[in-house]
From TrEMBL:
It comes from Algoriphagus faecimaris. GO terms for cellular component: cytosol. Residues 375-479 form the Nicotinate phosphoribosyltransferase C-terminal domain. This is Nicotinate phosphoribosyltransferase. GO terms for molecular function: nicotinamide phosphoribosyltransferase activity; nicotinate phosphoribosyltransferase activity. Catalyzes the first step in the biosynthesis of NAD from nicotinic acid, the ATP-dependent synthesis of beta-nicotinate D-ribonucleotide from nicotinate and 5-phospho-D-ribose 1-phosphate. The keyword Acetylation does not apply. One of its GO terms (biological process) is NAD+ biosynthetic process via the salvage pathway. Its EC number is 6.3.4.21. Residues 14-144 form the Nicotinate phosphoribosyltransferase N-terminal domain.
Amino acid sequence: MKITKDLYQGSLTLLTDFYQLTMAYAYWKSGKGEQEAIFNLFFRKHPFQGGFTLTAGLDYVIDYLDNFKFKKEDLQYLGEMKAKDGSAVFEEGFLDYLDNLQFSCDIEAIEEGTVVFPNMPLIRVKGPLIQCQLLETPLLNIINFQTLIATKAARVNLAAKGAPVLEFGLRRAQGIDGALAASRASFIGGCSSTSNVMAGKLFGIPVSGTHAHSWIMSFETELEAFEAYADAFPDQCIFLVDTYDTINGIKNAIKVGLVLRAKGKEMMGIRIDSGDLTYFSNKARQMLDEAGFPDAKIVASNDLDEHLISSLNTQEASIDIWGVGTKLVTAFDQPALGAVYKLSAIKDETGEWVPKIKLSQQSLKINIPGAHRVRRYSSNGKAVADMIYLENQEINPRGTVIIDPSDPTRRKRIMPAFYQEEELLIPIFKGGKVIYKSPSLLDIKERAKCQLAAFDSSHKRLVNPHLYPVGLEENLHHLRMELVLKAKKFENEKDEF
């Protein structure tokens, strides 16, 4: 199921930083508003000190852009803004311009559920400067968060080694929209279900859940609570056993399980939410097996993340299903992806595209100029290397060199003729109109699964992952260095005066 149409019930055009509007006004005032430009949205480092990132959020972007329009009340609000001297911040003519503005950009993007790497454009926007500029904040807001959570979910699911992971972070998520977006991104990243009922309705994600400690505490005894729950849900009983004493809780679950069996029903399992999860899960497995419940599942929760799950698996804990909440939906150990949105080219008066470079004292922050694309090379279904290259550059099938944009000494020779290739940037909007058919969320989830399977396990390690080769095609590398040296020479000349 794809995202519900008009999730936000109309335009969110004012969901932007104020400086985007002041720049848009200045572009309009200087006559540059309709000058064509290219902007790229990309990130500089993998989150969680990992070796891969899983992109998500494109369907939200499409929904946002499909409703991109300044409403009358938006323009009224902007018109009422006052400068320090009491004058209007924005001229009436600019507000009229915004009122008549029709979204007309070309958008290309890497599809959701794709494994991506630093410096490659996740989204490329081409169109009038004002429109491109106004899209910066909302696109970053959407892609940064969902990509971060999808990546966290993928790491958690890799640690779970095929065991189901249930996402139930709603109560700890960053607000209503944060919870919905996190549930969707977690599903893309591999989670099998969510506790978030609204996310289930909007996105078609399976919902799951049992009961809380408060259910047990509302009865005189734990046994009574289990009996009542079994009476209400005889076909889906998973008992939370650690309210008072975990071992006694397991015993009570077994007692009720035997009563259910006598009625022709079967207990699904138990959940442990505290204590030594290895000890109690192994003890529970032994007790359940001995009581004749070898198929009963053991669910574990309690502030789990990929590192704790990996540790518990190493300890051979008897856990069949993982319930992960806070540390997944909040990306607990890294609160932001840090993706950026940079101008890479602008069209001059002659109609020629002029590549643009941004310098920094940190080489990591020097952008990649020009109109470029991304190509993935694979062999027998396994990813070999990714190449970022100039849009109109002919690639020699007999061989080319890719150069790490962060470390020019790292190079790899690619023989394209020996590999399968995939263009990762896909047309999404043309002239402001959607031309991309969004896949279902299940299809996106399946794409993510296949994408992850295409990469060697060394790139997916939780700690000290091996670096996957991603580089600039040598012509793009030379262009970048040429522009860097030219800009630095210009700055040095200025310093002499």
